[in-house]
Each structure stands twice: as C-alpha cells, then as structure tokens.
Amino acid sequence: MSTVNKTAHAFDKARLDALLNRRFFYAPAFEIYGGVAGLYDYGPPGSSLQANIISEWRRHFIVEESMLELDTTIMTPAPVFESSGHVARFADWMVKDSGNGEVLRADHLVKNVLEARLEGDREARGAAPVAAAADEKKKKKKQAKSTAVKLDDAVVAEYESILAQLDNYTGPELGGLMRTHTITNPSSGNPVGEPQQFNLMFASSIGPTGQHPGFLRPETAQGHFLNFSRLLEFNNGRVPFASAQVGRAFRNEISPRAGLIRVREFTMAEIEHFVDPLDKSHPRFAEVADVELVLLDKYVQAAGQSTTRVMTVGAAVADGVIANETLGYFVARIYAFLLHIGIDPARLRFRQHMANEMAHYAADCWDAEIQNSVGGWTECVGCADRAAYDLSVHAAATKQSLVVREALKEPVVEERAVAEWDKKALGKAFKGDAGAVTSAVEALDEAGLMRLKGELAQGSATIKTAAGKEFTLEPTMLAIERKTFKTFVREYVPNVIEPSFGVGRILYCLLEHSFWSREQDVDRGVLSLPAVVAPTKVLIVPLSARAEFDPLVKEVSLRLRKAGVHARVDDSNTSIGKRYSRNDELGTPFGVTLDFASVQNRTMTLRERDTMDQRIGAIDDVLGAVVALVQGAITWEEACARLPRYDGVQAVE
Ligand SMILES: Nc1ncnc2c1ncn2[C@@H]1O[C@H](COP(=O)(O)OP(=O)(O)OP(=O)(O)O)[C@@H](O)[C@H]1O
C-alpha cells in the first residue's frame, strides 16, 4: 500500500480557483450579464458537496440530539426586526474614498493596510511571509501594496495589537485609527471620510400597497424565537430542547470581494437551544469533556496578542474560560462536526468574543475560526449564549407570554407586600387616570411599596405614572399589606445557546484544506474530500464504450444504486488515466474499472484516489468493500487486507 505526501507542493490558490471554475463547483451568478459582487451559483459538484455537508449536519445535530426541525419564511415583516434590534444595529461601518467615492468596509480597510505594512516590514527584514499571509500576498499587493519598508519595533507591536482586537473597535474608534496611522484607500491613495453605519438588511415591502415594509432575513434565528410557544408545546412543555433550521440568509455586504467567504446570499444552519437560566449543565457533557480544543480567549486578545492554548472542554468550563456546560458541549460538537467533514484540525481554532464585540446581552460567545488563504482566520461558526434577550424582546413587543411554566414539586411560600384598593374611592379621585395609577403602584418593588406604606401612614403619598404625571394617594384609597403567597408553578424566560453555521464558508475552507497537487508544475490537482461529503463516491470506468461492457456496467451501477451509493459512469472516449484525473479533481474517492478480465472472470479493480493504489477482486467482493468504504464501515487499510494489490499491466483494448 502506498502512502502520499499531500503537502509536498506549495498550496496554489490560482490553481485551486482554476479547478473549481473548470469543474463548475461554483461560479459568479448572472455571469453573462456581467455578474454581481457577492452572488454565486453552485454547479453540479458544488451543489452535491453542499447537500452532503448539510445532510451530515442534520445527522450530526438534528438526529443525534433529537432537535426540532423548522423551515420558516425568509421574507419578514419589519416589526420583527425592529424588536430584535436588527433595524437599529445590524450594521457595519463603511468609509467613502474622498476622491472617487469608492465604498470600503472600515475594519477591513484598517486590517488590509496594517497587514500589508507588517508584510512590508517582514520583507525589509528578510523574513519569510507569515504562513497565512503567504497566499494572500498576491491579493493584498493589488488592494494594499506591501512595499519593503522597515518599521520601528514599537510600531510593529502597535499594529499587531490593533489587529488582535480589530473586532472590538467602534466606528469612531476605527476613524481615529485611520487618522492616527494615515490609512488611505490603497487602490487610489485618496483619504477616506469618517466611518458611517450601513444597515446590512435588504429592505422590501409586502403586498401591493407598499404599506407593509419587510426585510429578507439576515439569519434564520427569528423564525425559531417567534415559534417558541409552539415548539415548547410540541416538546410537552419541557426545557431544554433545541430547534434547528437550514435556510437562506441575505446580507447586503459593503464590498464583498472574498469569494464564498463573504457573499450577499448564503445558506445558514442554525440551532437555538433553549435552556433553564438557572441550570446550564448538559446531560451529555461527560461525553465531550476530554475533547481538546485550541482556544484564543478574550483576555489574550484584549492584551493585543493572539497566542492560543490547548485545553480540554472539561477544564475550560471548570476554569470559567467557557461560561457554562451547554456552551462547552456545543463548542465540542461543532469541533467534531468540522473534523468529520474534513476540516484540517491544525487550521481550526475557537476564538472568544471580546467585551465590545459581543452584543450587550450575550453571556459568552465563541467563534469556530478556520484558516484559509482568502481571509486568514475566518469565523465560520458562531456559538453564543444569548441569555434571555430574544424571547424577552418579542414578548414585550407582542404582549405574548414567551415563558416556560414548570410545576414545582414543593410550593414556594413567600411573604410580600401588595396594594389593596378601594376601587370606588380610587375611581372617584382619578377617573380616567385610575388605571395608570394602579399600574404605577403595582410596578413598584417590595422596597417601593414599603416606602409608600410609610408615606401613607404620614397622611398621603405621591406616585408618578409611566407617562410622567404625578398623583397624590390617600389612605382611604389603598392599604399596603404584607401577605403570604404559595406558588405552585415556576415561570421563566429560557436562555438561548445559539450555534450558527455559514455553510458556504465551511464549504470553501473544506475545498482549500482538501486541495493538493500530485506534481509541482503540472496541473494534477486532487480534492481529498472525505467520502461522506464527496459529490460522487464511486466512478465506474469501463475500459471503453464497447457494447460488451454494457451489461456489467449496468449491473455494477444498479447494485451501487441499490446500496445507496452515489456512483457515476464515465465511458467517455479518453484514456482511463485522464478519466481518473478528472475525478481526482472532483474529489471522487473511489474508482472501479471494468475490462476484458471482468467480462471473462467477473473481476473488477478498485482504485483509491489519494494513493492511486489499485486492488483487484471478484465483482461481489469489490462491491462489498467499496460500499463499506463509502459508509465509513471500513478503512482503506482494511479494504487492502481483503483485496490483493492489482499491479497487472493495464489491459489493452
Ligand atoms: N457575508 C457572509 N457570507 C458568507 N457567510 C457569512 C456571511 N456573514 C456571515 N456568514 C456566516 O454566518 C455565520 C453566522 O453569522 P454571524 O452573524 O455570527 O457572522 P458575522 O459575525 O456577521 O460575520 P463577519 O463578522 O465575518 O461579518 C458566520 O459564522 C459565517 O459562517
């Protein structure tokens, strides 16, 4: 059995792009109309790869964790996003070139320019470019040219510190950085204006009158929250439970130039796990406690550094690095999923959000960042503890009660102050304002009520309504008494842990991590996609298109189809070697060849993509092995133990 060194030749982004384009994994949408930045169409292998990633995601999360699946609408009425805060805050900071009006995303401009200056400094010092930057260099040279200029050590340290906490800056702070460090538009050299907020949602209107504004959703999450009561009922009123949804999301990104990494329409896979705020333990935490993760915590970043550390999930939760078990559980499950579909663990880390980066209500947030040549370390999955924010804001806006009611084993007995009204006296004194006055009193907490009681004992008390009007209360209108209450039900707004996956970003990183070349200078690219996600699992290659192979081709195709294995026949009029090369580019992990020996002896050869190892055996045995390989039931080594090596000369036609 041969082994293979996939990293012998340097990663070549241009070659990968050419392969993806040639084999139509994806391409710019509306290409013959000139295309639109940030919109892409997936071709046959790209669509199958995406479908397979989603199918594994469903198996790994929805099936394995008994999640409740949803499919909610994309077009969303404006009030939903007003309540959620998206209308006010779902925005990025942009700057305009003062000369040509070009619009740039403020944080990306700072990042590109400072990284290019650091790169120039490395060149001037004669150092090799940093690993992630090596492939980015060509791109950066176009956008933000790196010229070999040596910087002061203090400046290098300052730039590194800014880059380490870039996500933590507000718009005005980014503007300050641009002034302090004389950051201009690299493509024109012109200065840029002050950062302005730009809302990323695509606005629309619902119905013919134009009176009902709406938005294309920028995430699937609101659909989960708005259906919370139904989901809770479906789950027999019990918490915790999780809902899950795969669907499209839309974001009007400011200047998307990063291929699938930053697009304006993309597929998300999102989970909302509803949990008791007083108990965020997870029943299956022990299963993941020993999983080791590479973590970049918020303290390290706030100190302007990017040093990661390896910790088990168990230790991270025990030490308070990750806020709670449920969040830790999901971080570990995200890790397992990404590895399962073929992401390189050496290019995967979890980065914690810094204080300003995280929404004010969130308790903790970790991004799975995957390294790639386009964006360096790029967030591909966000995993946040969003506390009770989402359900609370929708409950307040709709006056619907989005709570869990839990029967208590032992009733809770408590004594508290309550207002007892003389309704007649109240109505007489305040007439139409009586309701506002009672609401104002009932909104008081225990201390407020006791203060009111004291004032009434002195003769009268003043109360301010929500509208700000003041009224004088007298002891004839109400009495404040302490009473004993027994509660049999606990009512609470559950907290939400939200893992949110961008499928396109993961798919692109997977393509990069899977790509390698057999030879340095010849276009012999291979995509080593794991069988579970490979678009096609088995290539059936008859030696030629001769009719005598037809019955066997049909038989093998049918038997693979029946076993649920996605296979394709390639009987094109080209050499077997060329046919295999084409399928190496498509990431097809196995190939079976039918030749004259197959017709005579019912034997078939089996080829493994990465090693190009060939094995031979009876058709039944080869089919048995290849089905088991595709299902992940056996490894290639185990298949080799079953089938002898084939090193016969390729049969001649
Ligand atoms: N424009 C985009 N194109 C492709 N995927 C995206 C885009 N924006 C977000 N995603 C994906 O959706 C996931 C969840 O979205 P989230 O709102 O957390 O991203 P984000 O913090 O806005 O990302 P970024 O900071 O990179 O813009 C991300 O982890 C990412 O995989």
Structure at a glance:
The strands form 8 sheets. A 9-stranded mixed β-sheet has the order 3-10-11-21-16-15-14-12-13, sandwiched between helices. The mean pLDDT is about 95.
Question: Cofactors and ligands present?
Answer: adenosine-5'-triphosphate
Low-confidence stretches: none
CATH fold-type name of the largest domain: BirA Bifunctional Protein, domain 2
* Strands ordered across the widest β-sheet: 3-10-11-21-16-15-14-12-13
Tally the helices.
Answer: 24
Amount of helix: 25-40%
Average pLDDT rating: 93
User: In percent terms, what proportion of residues is strand?
Assistant: 25-35%
Distance between the termini: 27 Å
CATH architecture of the largest domain: 2-Layer Sandwich
Please write the CATH class name of the largest domain. Alpha Beta
Number of strands: 28
Structural class of the helices, strands and pairings? alpha+beta
Count of domain modules: 4
Report the C-alpha radius of gyration, rounded.
31 Å
Largest sheet: 9 strands, mixed
The H-level CATH homologous superfamily of the largest domain, spelled out, is Bira Bifunctional Protein, Domain 2
Shape: globular
Explain this structure to me?
The structure is a single chain. This protein is an alpha+beta fold and 653 residues long. It has four domains: 13-72 and 220-390 and 496-505, BirA Bifunctional Protein, domain 2 (2-Layer Sandwich); 91-199, Herpes Virus-1 (2-Layer Sandwich), CATH 3.30.40.230; 409-491, Signal recognition particle alu RNA binding heterodimer, srp9/1 (2-Layer Sandwich); 536-642, Anticodon-binding domain (Rossmann fold), CATH 3.40.50. It contains 24 helices and 28 strands. The strands form eight sheets. Strands 3-10-11-21-16-15-14-12-13 form a nine-stranded mixed sheet, with helices on both faces. Strands 25-24-26-27-28 form a five-stranded mixed sheet, sandwiched between helices. A hairpin with a 5-residue loop joins strand 18 and strand 19 (470-473). Helix 5 runs antiparallel to helix 7. It binds adenosine-5'-triphosphate. Adenosine-5'-triphosphate binds at residues 251, 253, 262-263, 266, 268, 379-382, 500, 502, 504-505.
